[in-house]
Structure formats: structure tokens, C-alpha cells
Amino acid sequence: MEAFVQAVEGSAINQWVIGSAWTWPILEILHFMGLSFLLGALLIIDLRMAGFFRQINVAATHKLLPWVFIGFGINLVTGFLFLMGDPARYTANIGFWWKMVLVCVAGLNALWFWLKVNDDMKTWEPHADTPAIAKMIAWISLGSWFGVLLLGRLIPYIGTG
Amino acid sequence: MFEWLELTPVAIWVGESLWGYPIMLGLHAVGLAIVVGIFVMRDLRLMGFFQGISYESLNGLRNLGWTGFVINAVSGCFLFASQATTFITSTPFLLKISMIFIAAVFAALIQNKLRDDAVQWDSGGRAAGSVRTFAMISTAMWMGAIIAGRLVAYL
Predict the structure, then answer these.
(1) What pLDDT does A1 receive?
(2) Do B38 and B109 form a contact (C-beta atoms < 8 A)?
(3) Residue B18: pLDDT band with limits 50, 70, 90
(4) pLDDT of B155 higher than 90
(5) Chain B residues bordering chain A (beta-carbon distance below 8 Å)
(6) Does residue A48 lie within any of the structural domains?
(7) Which of B27, B32, B41, B64 has the most A C-beta neighbours within 10 Å, making it the best mutation to test the interface with A?
(8) pTM above threshold 0.90
(9) Which of A22, A30, A31, A43 to mutate to test the interface with B (most CBs of B within 10 A)?
(10) Does A157 contact B at CB distance below 8 Å?
(11) Do the domain assignments include residue A159?
(12) Is there a contact between B60 and A53 (Cβ–Cβ < 8 Å)?
């Protein structure tokens, strides 16, 4: 990890992120917008998949997926730039690592959905209750993403070296 | 008055205890994701995205959106109390509060229109022009509140 920090510090991308007083706050603003798109769309998709809001057509909630990916994409790019801007701070922070673990959990959970539920979903009654496996995947998704949100916001307060 | 607020026991708990400030900040992030996320997704539907989700079914999201709003009003009051004299003179903070106020007014206008006219929009295929305008203003206010809110820490 020290080698990584040394490689990043002083690099062109590192200098770009910390070179102007405005870059960091602008990246933060984008990161907050990204999280509200990601979580807003996921709340509707996952709560419907957990059996709530049955007045919403369950298959149609997937129209929201582009906003999940837009939000995730914005936050992946801005998050990577934070890491490039201050590598020593993030790599020494246990909250950051737990956050990355939860992002991976959320990703594997999405893969599980894709493999086991996605095809069946089109055959579900639009306004009916959902199968148990779908409910479990929905709650894991919400749990991991809200965990990501909390860990991210609390990085400055958790176990900083 | 703001000096007095900062010296109340609850403000001191938020400002000086080990977990007071992080707990409130964490709740404020969760509430932000809910209120901005839900209301902006609803606005996008009204603007014409996500066809297949009926306008009428958006009525069900109202309470969830306001739940996020209340989480942030409460956690925001705690955070404000801990540094009241600083926040009350901060231009981005005052801008943020103004934009949230406007966004809340538009959220209420939109939900009343949805309650009364959603069925009609579903049969016609699109929301009334006035409501599409409300939705754009609402989303602009929420994005503005995020921008101003982040800048409170920098300006």
C-alpha cells in the first residue's frame, strides 16, 4: 500500500485533483448528486421488489436502471479521483475499506439477481407480491448501498490513521 | 439568540461528544438520499422518463419522500444548533435553506396535482405542461440545495 501511495502522490492525476481549490468541492457535489440518483432509483426498484408499492408495475421499475448506472458511474469516477487526490488518507482508513467491501457485496448481489431472478421477473403479475428470493436480494441491495452511504459519509470520523 | 442556541446542552452534545456529530451527519446523508432521490425520480417520471410506470402509482411514493425530508429537518436542526452562529451568517447555508423551502412547496404542489389528475394523465400519456414545469423547478432546487450544502463547508 505504501508503494501505491508513493506512486500516486505527485502523479499528474494527483496534481490535477489537488491543484485547484475548486476541484475537490466540485467532485464532492457530483458525488452527492450521483448518490441521490443511485439510491433514489434503487429505493423504488428494491422496495417494489421487496413487495411494497404494489400499485407500481414491478417490471416497469427497471426503466429506472439507467439512473442507477448513471449515479454509479458518476460516483465511480469522482470516487476514484478522491483516491488519487489523497491516497494516504483513504488507504489508511478502515471505513474506506469496509465501504469498498460493501460495494463488492452490492455488485455480487446484483449479479445474483441477474442470474436467478431477472428472467422470471417478466412473468410476474405487475401488481402482485414478489417471491422470497427477490425480497432477500432487494433487502441485501438496500442494506449494502445504505451501508456504503453511511461509511462514505463517516470516513472522516472512522479509524483514520 | 444563536449564541444561546449553541450553548444549550443538546448543541454541546452534538458539537463535542464523540458520536453526536457523526450520528447526525450520517442521518443527514440517509435522509438526503431518500428525499432528493425519491422526489427527483418522481420529477423525472413527470418529465416523461420511465414510461410504463403509471402516474397514478407515483402517489404511493409521497410518504417515503417526506420521511427523508423529516429525517433531514430533524438532523439538520441538531447540526445547525452545534454551530448556529457560523451557519446563520453563511451565504451558501441561507441559499440552501431557501432552495429547500421552494423545493418543499413544489413537492406539495406536485403531489396535489398527482392526486387530482394522475388518472387523466395516464389516459392521455403525458403529464400537464404546468406539472412538467413544476418537476423541472423541483429537480433544479434539489440539485441547487446539494451544491449550496456542500459549499457551506468551503465558503
Answers:
(1) 85
(2) no
(3) confident
(4) no
(5) 21-22, 25-26, 28-30, 32-34, 36-38, 40-41, 44, 49-54, 56-57, 59-61, 64, 142-143, 146-147, 149-151, 153-154
(6) yes
(7) B41
(8) yes
(9) A43
(10) yes
(11) no
(12) yes
What is the three-class DSSP state of A40?
Answer: helix
A119: confidence class by pLDDT, cuts 50, 70, 90 = very high
- A161, pLDDT greater than 60: no
Report ipTM for this prediction: 0.95
**How far is A141 from A39, CA to CA, in rounded Å?**
10
CA distances in angstroms from B50 to A88, A146, B43, B58, listed in the order given = 42, 24, 11, 12
Domain span at A83: 2-153
- Ramachandran area for residue A96 (φ above 0: left; ψ -120 to 50: alpha; else beta): alpha
For residue A34, the surrounding DSSP H or E stretch is helix A23-49
| Count of domains observed in chain A | 1
- Please tell me if residue A151 touches chain B, with a CB cutoff of 8 Å: no
